[in-house]
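Researcher: Next sequence.
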Amino acid sequence: MSEDKRSQEVIDKNEIMEIATISRWCRDSGDSAGMLECFHSDAQVETSWFSGSREEWVRESGKMMAGHDSKDVQRHIMGNPHVTLKGDRAICEYTIILYQRRTLDGYEFDLTTWSVSLDFFEKRDGVWRISRRGTIYEKDRMEPYNPAEVPNSYFRRLDLSRYPHVLRYHCYRNERSSGRPPSPSLVFRGTPEEEAIRKDAEKWLYHR
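Model: Next structure:
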């Protein structure tokens, strides 16, 4: 590989990782305009609660955040990014740990969700943006911020039977704040659906 090509690859990978990072920062801060800028206009987004266009995802994300208690906070923490480049297309895969402090029924809870993001990037007119975002979910957790304040009966009364077992708390708190049930296109680790989206990523890069 020539020095010029190596330098361009470093530039491209840094730009891709920066855009992925900014998109998460904008999501947590409620910056709708910033979120839109990270995606191509025809981009598709797939999450635990949504599958659809860039515009609709940004709009519904704002509604979901509006359904939180004023004291609630959330952070998407990114890790281990891996960018695979092929011409004007790329896949950026990275882990996400979502931390939330949520107030439900007057009690404070800490919720954590582990997942992997697959961002399908495309360079158009010299600019990298996300064309598709897919998510592979692994597990979740819900813990009282102060266990002494939450009676044991609280968890026994929760009916989580309609949610996927490995993501039941995540889906429960999403529906509480947005009224939206889990997306029918949910993808979990170690399933045929994960295999399918990874094949989509391979086709995106190598089989146009």
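Model: Residues 3-206 form a domain with the Nuclear Transport Factor 2; Chain: A, fold (CATH 3.10.450.50). The chain is about 40% helix and 35% strand.
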